[in-house]
Specification:
Helix content is about 25%, strand content about 25%. It has helices at about 5-20, 75-80, 85-90, 120-130, 170-175, 230, 240-255, and strands at about 55-65, 95, 100-105, 110, 135-140, 145-150, 155-160, 180-195, 195-200, 220-225. α1 packs antiparallel against α7.
Length: about 260
């Protein structure tokens, strides 16, 4: 029994299988695999501004040298010390763009804001408010910019962000990163704009990712991370401590029969 060729063959096969299942090539889990130079520089294209559209919620803060005399924005004045990163606090004092592209703002009433970017909307409000205030300043921020991340990530879900430009790597970090079973070569970016929905395949292992228009995300984008073929075929990686424990047990059994 101890010198049986069949036993030795089975033992060798067991070692190969455990080793193969417990090890996953770094090529399958690393990002940006193109070999870099000592310093690699990538110049992204011109970033497109996020324009205001119906359904958006905007945080708007107005201040001027006449704030004490003209207490029209006392609610905003009391919120000046708020943490702008707190989405709940900001949403409580936000203004919703209606279906026609207007917001209803104190003093100004309803005025059109659709299709303007943040800077253009701020400048428009500043001009209109200058009739009532001395050198007004206007701060506008989106409240409800959100992305949805699904598939092979640690924490799938919908995430709200306040940055002007959020890139796809930062978005995946919000979801806890792609799991070890996620296919970094095939990440779907689903985007709806002007009634048209596009589904683009993004390769997270290529450095030219920085140069594509898909590197920076837009509000309401959906990211779907596909699983690798090993998961589709039912091959699950074995934690390394379990793999070593199994190998040790196999060696003890083998030694027993020697």
């Amino acid at each position: 029994m101890k010198n049986s060729p069949t036993f030795k063959a089975m033992f060798a096969f067991l070692i190969v299988v455990i080793t193969g299942y417990s090890c996953i090539s770094s090529k399958k889990i690393d990002y940006l695999q193109d070999p870099p130079e000592s310093v690699s520089t990538y110049k992204s294209g011109v970033l497109k501004d996020n324009v205001i559209k119906p359904g958006d919620e905007l945080y708007i803060r107005v201040s001027s040298f006449d704030d004490i005399a003209h207490n029209f924005f006392s609610a905003q004045s009391s919120s000046n010390n708020m943490n702008y990163g707190n989405e709940t606090s900001v949403a409580l004092i936000s203004y919703t763009v209606n279906s026609s592209g207007y917001i209803d703002f104190p003093i100004l009433g309803q005025f059109l804001i659709k299709d303007l970017n943040i800077d253009e909307a701020s400048e428009k409000m500043k001009v209109l408010l200058s009739e009532y205030f001395n050198q007004p300043t206007v701060l506008i921020r989106f409240v409800n910019k959100r992305i949805t991340i699904l598939g092979e990530v640690r924490v799938p879900g919908t995430y709200i962000f306040t940055k002007d430009h959020l890139n796809i790597l930062e978005a995946l970090a919000l979801a806890g990163d792609i799991t070890i079973h996620g296919n970094r070569n095939q990440v779907n970016l689903i985007r709806s704009q002007d009634g048209v929905t596009t589904n683009t395949m993004v390769n997270m292992t290529r450095d030219d990712l920085f140069l594509t228009e898909n590197y920076y995300l837009r509000s309401d984008d959906i990211i779907y991370v596909k699983s690798r073929n090993s998961v589709k075929w039912g091959v699950i990686s074995v934690p390394i401590n379990i793999a070593f424990g199994t190998v040790t047990t196999a060696l003890l059994i083998y030694s027993f029969f020697q």
